[in-house]
Design goal:
With 411 residues, the protein is of the alpha/beta class. It has 2 domains: 315 residues, Aldolase class I (TIM Barrel), CATH 3.20.20.70; 71 residues, Alpha-Beta Plaits. Strands 3-4-7-8-9-10-15-16 form an 8-stranded parallel beta barrel, surrounded by 8 helices. 45% of the residues are buried. Bound molecules: flavin mononucleotide (FMN). Flavin mononucleotide binds next to β4, β6 and α9.
């Protein structure tokens, strides 16, 4: 396995690689975290701890499938740690003693200022390298905690100040995506003393309804409730929020730990290119196990080797400036689809989608099952290439809307 130097300094702490368990059941006790660290993860955000001890439901998960692909999205109904605070603190202490070169981040959640301050002090005393403040769990049974707090910038600032009173460690404020504008709570957290931002936590959801029983999923003794959604399906939402933070004057310099739907090294790299320096994962580990870190490390290493990049930090934020406001996009040209007839399997899906959902620009020769593009009708939307199951439709000829124009285009 090719292994480049993937080390990175994040909020003043050195990570051997940027891949971390995000706070959740994947890092719930000493044994699990130890196995994860032995598997190659650079660090751990331990399952959120607090004075509040969660009483969880059964069952507590449901999934969204599409065309029988499991785990497209994943819903959970869990709150914070079920073990006692003492047990969790002991686990954090032992992990740090046994793995001094790995980074241990303690995720905490208080119910008032005193609890936040005390928790910050306690995790500092047992040797955590960093703290993450959970302002973002969307299914707490108390509204004094979780995403209800994260939606309130004043409370976020106040609780960050309390954490700062309790500890000198660098700390992340973990944001909720259940909000229109993440800049406000993120900025409030920085004003309160947070060193960086972790985002996103889960998205409030109802993933489905049992059609026989007519109850939402999962069914907990006859009822269900709204709770957090994660996994691949939330990646676009996470990337969008991260870009928002990285392009707003108030928050653009905040270090970010990116979370939400990371499964592969390509997913991870997208977060890095949008400005994240570390990356956190839960759902993909729940589905495939800790071993996915091997692919994350080797995939990223190969990419860096291929692109001749020695330091991971050289990739951080490279794509930020290439996402611009809609009004600034070049609307002066059309790129037509080009169908590779040798690779086409004559399924007709491009024809159907173009007719029923596009501009009726693909014609269908019924006898030979052949498609062709009518450039007078085609607007270059590329729905056809997206639905093609063998990906034989690519970007072809370019036409400038202003006929006299002819300039350089980068596709
Ligand atoms: C079962 C489960 C439990 C979770 N528990 C916590 C938690 O205790 N604290 C926290 O900050 N986030 C918690 N999360 C949120 C994850 O840390 C993460 O932010 C979210 O799942 C998105 O990442 P993913 O798509 O890689 O799962 C939990 C997520 C899941 C699926």
């Amino acid at each position: 396995m090719l292994k480049k130097d993937l080390s990175i300094e994040f909020m003043g702490v050195k990570f051997e690689n940027p891949f971390l368990l995000s706070s959740s059941p994947v890092g719930n006790c000493y044994e699990m975290c130890s196995k994860a660290l032995e598997s190659g993860w650079g660090g751990i955000v331990f399952k959120t701890i607090g004075f509040f001890i969660a009483n969880e439901v059964s069952p507590r998960f449901a999934e969204l499938q599409k065309e029988r692909t499991p785990f497209v999205g994943f819903k959970n109904m869990e709150q914070i740690a079920e073990h006692s605070l003492e047990e969790n603190l002991a686990a954090i202490k032992k992990l740090k003693e046994d793995y001094p070169n790995k980074v241990l981040i303690a995720s905490i959640m208080g119910q008032n200022e005193k609890e936040w301050e005390d928790l910050a002090r306690l995790v500092t005393e047992v040797g955590a390298d960093m703290i993450e403040c959970n302002f973002s769990c969307p299914q707490m049974t108390s509204h004094a905690m979780g995403s209800d707090v994260g939606q309130n910038p004043e409370l976020v600032k106040k609780y960050c100040q309390a954490v700062r009173r309790g500890s000198n460690l660098p700390f992340l404020a973990k944001m909720t995506p259940n909000i229109g504008n993440m800049v406000e709570p993120a900025y409030a957290s920085m004003q309160g003393g947070a060193t960086g931002i972790a985002t996103i936590n889960t998205v409030k959801s109802i993933v489905g309804v049992d059609l026989e029983k007519q109850i939402g999923l999962p069914i907990v003794n006859g009822k269900s409730s709204v709770s957090g959604y994660s996994g691949k399906a939330v990646k676009p939402i996470a990337l969008r929020f991260i870009h928002e933070l990285k392009t707003n004057e108030k928050t653009k310099d905040a270090p970010i730990s990116g979370i939400g739907g990371i499964e592969t090294w390509e997913d991870a790299l997208e977060f890095i290119l949008l400005g994240c320096e570390t990356l956190q994962v839960t759902t993909a580990i729940m589905q495939y196990g800790y071993r996915i870190v091997e692919d994350l490390i080797s995939g990223l290493s190969h990419y860096m080797e291929e692109k001749n990049i020695d330091k991971l930090e050289d990739l951080v934020g490279k794509a930020i400036d290439n996402i611009i406001p809609a009004e600034d996009l070049d609307r002066g040209y059309i790129v037509y689809p080009e169908i590779n007839k040798d690779e086409c399997i004559k399924c007709g899906r491009c024809y159907i989608s173009c007719y029923d959902g596009g501009h009726q620009a693909i014609s269908w020769d019924k006898e030979n099952r052949e498609v062709s593009v009518d450039k007078d009708k085609c607007v270059g939307c590329h729905l056809c290439s997206l639905v093609c199951p063998v990906k034989c439709i690519s970007k072809g000829e370019i036409k400038f809307k202003n006929k006299n124009e002819n300039r350089e285009i980068s596709l």
